[in-house]
Amino acid sequence: MTWFMVAVVVVAAAAGLLRWRRPAWYWLSIGVTFATVRVMVRYASVMDACGLTVPPARWRLTLARMAGREVPGPRPPRILRLSPTRTGLVLRLKLRPGQDAFDVAATTDRLRHSFGLYGVTSREIRSGVVEVRMTGYDVLKRVQMPARLDTRPMRIPVALREDGSVHYRDYRAVPHGLTLGATESGKSVYQRNLVAGLAPHHVALVGIDCKQGVELFPLARRFSALADNPDIALELLEALVTHMEEVYQLIRAEQRISVAVPDAKIAADVWDLPEDIRPVPVVVLVDEVAELALYATKDEEKRRDRIITALVRLAQLGRAAGIYLEICGQRFGSELGKGITMLRAQLTGRTAHRVNDETSANMAFGDIAPDAVLAAVQIPAETRGLAIAGDSTGGWHRIRAPHISLREAVNICNKHAHRTPDVPALAAFRPAIEAVPSARDRLSKTAPATA
Ligand SMILES: Nc1ncnc2c1ncn2[C@@H]1O[C@H](COP(=O)(O)OP(=O)(O)OP(=O)(O)O)[C@@H](O)[C@H]1O
Ligand SMILES: [Mg+2]
Question: 203, 242, 263, 425 — which has fewest CB within 10 A?
């Protein structure tokens, strides 16, 4: 008996330790079974307590009365499926007549603690069917991406959502994106994840990093063009506009062939072109975008206007030519001057990391999902990398990208360096890959000689 007690205590302590230190392992080994049993056992009473039941149908009452049986009780939504996942449970419910998806959405917080789970979200799959996704632990605390991911072209798994699903940056569905956040909030790590995700794809990467290139230049082997100051950025953006015009000429030329050939599909963007002549898609990553929009002198003002004009043109026309913009900055509002709000309107995919004030959050979500503004302001400073990602449908999610160090990103870029395509229009901006003198050597050269 004593041995039995000791074994029980040891197992309980091991389970507690596992739950504390490695919640993902705990969930997969023990948690999932307990949670499934708990949900199944408590389901009817929890639904009743949360007001998610409807009175029995009249014909049931009549039948019960005629048969002299007990009057049937209120009925909760019917469970269509309860499936365990890597991070939680997915419950698919068929709503009863008179219920709607908002009823379930409004009770998610109550369901969360009634079932003893960490988080609950719900969404309507089709009329009358609601999917309730529950997570067993805080999946955003230590982000671990699943091993099996969707690898369709131009669809990059970049972060994990709070419901345990993967957040994809899908360039073909949402061509241009804007990422905002206060300093040290995790924008560059998010962008680094994107570069690492894009590296194995057939895509040309173009970078503009006005922090003198500290974020993107180490990844240079996988970049087809890089700029580290506003002067080069202007030339690069204008070269990109030229590239875009060349791509449109190519599509026009191909259209003339397909119009003449009966039954051929007529190309309207790069993805309709035959693979052998399709130009490589280009993703333009801009870090610290405000640097491109600030000026102190008249000449700089002219440069700024040309830069913003080129960016607006790329945002408005680039999608069909396979040019996608990914813009990062601390703020991106009208105080940066003419053309900024016009550019922002074209950036459909919005991501906001922690921001210090509501106005900054409004720059990301004010015009698409006002409730996301509040969520962005509430992100705690200590959980860097946590962000709110929204899109033009008005939906938004809490996401967090896995932490990837610059070294890891560089290794991935170097591994895929052979995939770096040459874009003729951008050849002049191809970064030179040569060894540079170390900071110590430079300092010793510039230091005054001592006797
Ligand atoms: N997803 C994440 N998970 C864990 N830690 C993160 C994550 N993202 C960022 N961090 C931490 O936050 C630090 C700052 O991140 P990052 O450099 O991306 O911020 P930033 O928003 O680009 O700041 P700045 O505006 O100053 O460039 C990183 O060094 C890293 O330690
Ligand atoms: Mg940064």
Answer: 263
